[in-house]
Amino acid sequence: MFYAAFFAFTGIQMPYLPAWLEAKGLDARQIGIVLAVPMLLRVVAVPFATRLVDRRFAAKAALTLAAALSAAGYAAMGTASGFLAIAAAYAAISMVYSPVLPLADSYGLRGLNARGLAYGPVRLWGSVAFIFANMAGGVFLAVLGAADLVWVLTAAMAVIVGAALLLPSDATGKAEKKPMAGGLWRSGLFVTVVVGASLIQASHAVMYGFGTLQWSARGLDGSAIGLLWAIGVVAEILLFAVSARVTARIGAIGMILIGALGAMLRWTAMALDPPAALLPVLQCLHALSFGATHLGAMQVLARLAERSGGATAQGDFSALQGVTFAAAMGLSGLLVERFGSYAYLAMSLVAAFGFVIALAGRRAWREVDRA
Questions:
Q1: Helix, strand, or coil here: 98?
Q2: CA dihedral sign, ordered 81, 86, 89, 90
Q3: Residue 72 and residue 83: Cα distance in Å, rounded?
Q4: Which pLDDT tens digit goes with each residue over 250-309?
Q5: How far lies 8's CA from each of 2, 106, 131, 152, 158, in Å?
Q6: In a domain? residue 155
Q7: 104 vs 170, 240, 267, CA distance in Å?
Q8: Do 87 and 77 touch, CB atoms closer than 8 A?
């Protein structure tokens, strides 16, 4: 339920917040800055919050408080006007919102591992909600207009608060001694996985920041755009549904490498301004560029959590993703403004760097996997 609520919000916020920013009068460069600056704040907010949880701060209380403050923040941002005011409001929201997903992943992985359950088939319900929210967001965009989308985001965040209140106080059903974090960044496996996966995920910056605007400029309406976003997540769901078998066969690092290859193919094709009929096929590569990369990284982090704080490992990964994605998002605004769709070629290069770095972690993973 919590994953469904969280990703229902994300399914509206991710593709349609840029449309709201444009409706508020921001240009492409300003939109890139607004979307990028809060990601840098994750470097402070996420490690701080996750370390508190690994020192016995209640995960449920942290999730509920963060979601409640985020809902209030979106309501306040709805009344803001002008680049500086909107950027400041979104930055404040990001400070309390950014720890939510790493805390939820740590909480969920701990409970699932205690019950012998796989992560992918549970996490897929978040993706299912993301699909419906994508389509609903397209309808909201067509009916309400971009200027009122912020109020939809506020209501969706309030639903996350309700879902957090329903969580058990302890994911495992019993008190658990949480190990103190330490030594993560001295692990070659951790470094190669989080850096490689972060670069692959950061390569989505042009798509996430400007995909909706570019498709709209090509004449696609809100419903068609929502459907395109949904197609990518359907492919992701199918991978999540069979993730236990696929990951067991390919391996965690293999999943990350396949994710990088899928991203390189996807962004190279997008740079060539493919015909609209090809866009659904390219969106299916989201199963690799995002899904396979995420599943591989989660398997590695879950294993490393046995030696270090689970929330801390998730938090540090999320913080690094914030840095890399912020850099990619800030750059994407400049690239799109100057080069249009050719900006995707830079994203393909970013994914290629992620591939090379993750490849260096294969030997370390084999040693940990045999332990």
A1: coil
A2: positive
A3: 20
A4: 988 999 999 999 999 999 999 998 988 999 999 999 999 999 999 999 988 887 776 555
A5: 10, 20, 8, 11, 11
A6: yes
A7: 12, 17, 30
A8: no
Domain count within the chain: 1
Q: Is the torsion defined by CA of 102, 106, 108, 109 positive or negative? A: positive
Residue 109 lies in a domain: yes
What residues contact residue 159 under an 8 Å CB cut-off, 6+ apart? 5, 8, 9
pTM confidence score: 0.79
Q: pLDDT tens-digit profile of 191-240?
A: 999 999 999 999 999 998 888 888 888 888 877 887 898 899 899 999 99
Distance of CA 206 to the CA centre of its chain: 14
Q: Any idea what the CATH number is for the domain that residue 34 is in? A: 1.20.1250.20
Per-residue 3-state assignment (H helix, E strand, C coil) for 173-231: CCCCCCCCCCCHHHCHHHHHHHHHHHHHHHCCHHHHHHHHHHHHHCCCCHHHHHHHHHH
Domain that holds residue 278: 2-170+185-370
Buried b (16+ CB within 10 A) or exposed e, 126-149: bbbbbbbbbbbbbebbeeeebeeb
In the structure encoding, which two tokens stand for residue 283, read together?
């969106």
**179 domain-assigned:** no
Dihedral angle computed from the Cα positions of residues 260, 261, 265 and 270, in that order, rounded to the nearest 10 degrees: -10
* SS3 of residue 235 by DSSP: helix
Give the residue among 214, 178, 167, 177 at the shortest CA–CA distance from 63. 167
178 in any annotated domain: no
Closest CA to 74 of 143, 132, 16, 1: 16
